[in-house]
């Protein structure tokens, strides 16, 4: 058995859309040990993460964690010796200095995320970086906004030294994860965003911002970061860019609320999440994203404004093959 005393960063959601690129940045640009959660423990860590740098294998520690099983929460801070990979480590001997928290998409009426935050505070984690969104302000009815309010209360009470809330706009990657089938099969993107303009952003920009929030001096970390790409685009604009990139006409299909709810419910998403998505589209249609895009950094309110350099057109061109007709046949094989 080995006793590990290195400072560590806990990544709850470290293999996800933003967590994986963040994990790679932390491995390549810092010396921290990374404690990464997965429902399958070390078996859930992507193999390519171990190739990030020469000592990645020694610095990556996978630990079992499941939002639906609170008995796994203590795993992240336990003094009990647990098997991780091919070694045995005492997780309690890791000094977790910071936590990156990607909350579950649903469950703002459940307090599971608050329970985890309380455990982190109890174990003297001095910094928490939370992933939220641009569309919901502190305290509003989303899990990120509710947690932002709670972290603010903990900071005021002196129970945590530093917290940061990342509030990115809509991800470029959504076009692959959510819209790809519609683009391939119907030559369209479907939404209720109407003419609302959005500052679409790359996950790389989010990961870079998270890196700084996790490792910069405490005094340099803002309480919230508004993160967007360099430009604003409506869904009509986006359809026009897709048309140019793909060489075939892509249109913006404007959905009614009933159509939207039916579409995502039939796709198998839980009602709470579908309702959340609908609210997001409606807020985008009302101009909320554009208003957030136009904000500037304000030290008085501890707000930093981040604009990435990668454009939406650059992203779509780099991933053009994901939207070509041949992908339909390839994916069916």
Automatic annotation (TrEMBL):
<dbReference type="InterPro" id="IPR036291">
    <property type="entry name" value="NAD(P)-bd_dom_sf"/>
</dbReference>
<dbReference type="InterPro" id="IPR013968">
    <property type="entry name" value="PKS_KR"/>
</dbReference>
<dbReference type="Pfam" id="PF08659">
    <property type="entry name" value="KR"/>
</dbReference>
<feature type="domain" description="Ketoreductase (KR)">
    <location>
        <begin position="9"/>
        <end position="79"/>
    </location>
</feature>
<dbReference type="InterPro" id="IPR051604">
    <property type="entry name" value="Ergot_Alk_Oxidoreductase"/>
</dbReference>
<protein>
    <recommendedName>
        <fullName>Ketoreductase (KR) domain-containing protein</fullName>
    </recommendedName>
</protein>
């Amino acid at each position: 058995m080995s006793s590990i005393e290195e400072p560590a960063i806990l990544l709850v959601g470290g293999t996800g859309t933003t967590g994986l690129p963040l994990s790679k940045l932390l491995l390549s640009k810092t010396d921290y040990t990374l404690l990464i959660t997965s429902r399958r423990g070390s078996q859930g860590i992507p193999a390519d993460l171990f190739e990030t740098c020469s000592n990645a294998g020694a610095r990556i520690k996978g630990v079992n964690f499941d939002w639906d099983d609170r008995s796994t929460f203590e795993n992240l801070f336990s003094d009990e010796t647990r098997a991780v990979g091919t070694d045995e480590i005492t997780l309690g001997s890791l000094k977790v200095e910071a936590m990156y928290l990607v909350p579950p998409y649903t469950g703002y009426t459940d307090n599971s995320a608050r329970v985890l935050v309380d455990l982190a505070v109890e174990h003297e984690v001095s910094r928490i970086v939370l992933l939220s969104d641009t569309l919901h302000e502190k305290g509003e009815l989303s899990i990120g906004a509710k947690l932002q309010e709670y972290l603010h209360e903990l900071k005021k009470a002196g129970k945590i030294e530093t917290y940061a809330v990342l509030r990115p706009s809509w991800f470029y990657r959504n076009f692959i994860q959510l819209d790809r089938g519609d683009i391939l099969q119907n030559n369209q993107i479907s939404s209720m965003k109407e003419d609302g303009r959005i500052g679409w952003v790359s996950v790389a920009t989010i990961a870079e911002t998270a890196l700084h929030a996790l490792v910069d001096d405490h005094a340099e970390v803002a309480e919230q970061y508004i993160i967007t790409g360099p430009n604003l685009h409506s869904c009509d604009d986006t359809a026009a860019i897709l048309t140019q990139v793909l060489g075939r006409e892509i249109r913006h299909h404007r959905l009614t609320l009933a159509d939207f709810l039916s579409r995502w419910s039939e796709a198998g998403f839980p009602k709470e999440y579908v309702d959340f998505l609908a609210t997001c589209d409606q807020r985008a249609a009302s101009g909320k994203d554009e208003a957030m895009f136009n904000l500037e950094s304000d030290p008085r309110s501890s707000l930093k404004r981040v604009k990435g350099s990668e454009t939406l057109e650059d992203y779509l061109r780099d991933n053009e093959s994901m939207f070509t007709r041949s992908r339909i046949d390839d994916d069916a094989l």
